[in-house]
Design goal:
TIM Barrel, 8-stranded parallel β-sheet, PRAI_dom, 10 strands, alpha/beta, globular, 7 helices, aromatic amino acid biosynthesis, single chain, N-(5'-phosphoribosyl)anthranilate isomerase
């Protein structure tokens, strides 16, 4: 059974179309001004309206305020939260009535074990590589963690794998971890924030989606 895939950080109709045509199950829109993938809510809404029902729009946020959530949640199926405490994640889920993904930055097995704090507060865990101290962005840096840190883990929630994935390593990542959902951003770019249609297609092919 192939893994499903989320193509994250999309900002154009052409790259959104490539993700849909390639068989992505989810597409991600980043709402975080420091990111090179930041997108205006109005543009994201217009792109989301073109999605078929089988493809879910996910909003990516860094500890968002209620105003930003109110402007974006109506056209999203899920919200992905970075640097957001479990209590705040639970409050957001109650407020927006959308599926909540909690990003868990991983460098050690203790980080993986910390995902249990989101039981009852989120619907899915996104294991991502922990950025260096002082990094401006919580993700999308092309970093990966040791996938074997997930060996034998009893996951508290459904989960997805992120961090440093690309068309050349995603099949190995799926094989090592057993991930049923993988998430890519910088791994299908030619420059920060510049998605590549061919790389998107190759990534989805490597997951078995096309």
């Amino acid at each position: 059974m192939p893994a499903t895939a989320k193509i994250c950080g999309l900002t154009t109709a052409a790259t959104l179309d490539a993700a849909v045509r390639g068989g992505a199950s989810h597409v991600g829109f980043v709402f975080f001004a420091p990111s090179p993938r930041d997108i205006a809510p109005d543009l994201a809404a217009a792109l989301a309206r073109t999605l078929p029902d089988a493809v879910a729009a996910v909003g990516v946020f860094v500890d968002p305020d209620d105003d930003l959530l109110a402007r974006t949640a109506p056209f999203l199926r899920a919200v992905q939260l970075h640097k957001t405490a479990p209590a705040r994640a639970a409050a957001i889920r109650d407020r927006v009535r959308r599926e909540v993904w909690a990003a868990v930055p991983v460098r050690t097995r203790a980080d993986v074990d910390g995902a249990g704090a989101f039981r009852g507060a989120a619907d899915r865990i996104l294991y991502d590589a922990k950025p260096p101290e002082g990094a401006a962005l919580p993700g999308g840096l092309g970093l990966r963690f040791d996938w074997h840190l997930l060996d034998g883990v009893r996951h508290p929630l459904p989960w997805a794998l992120s961090g440093g994935l690309d068309p050349d390593n995603v099949a190995d990542a799926i094989g090592v971890t057993g991930a049923r959902l993988v998430d890519v951003s910088s791994g299908v770019e030619t420059a920060p924030g510049v998605k590549d249609v061919d790389k998107i297609g190759r990534f989805l092919q490597a997951t078995g989606r096309s």
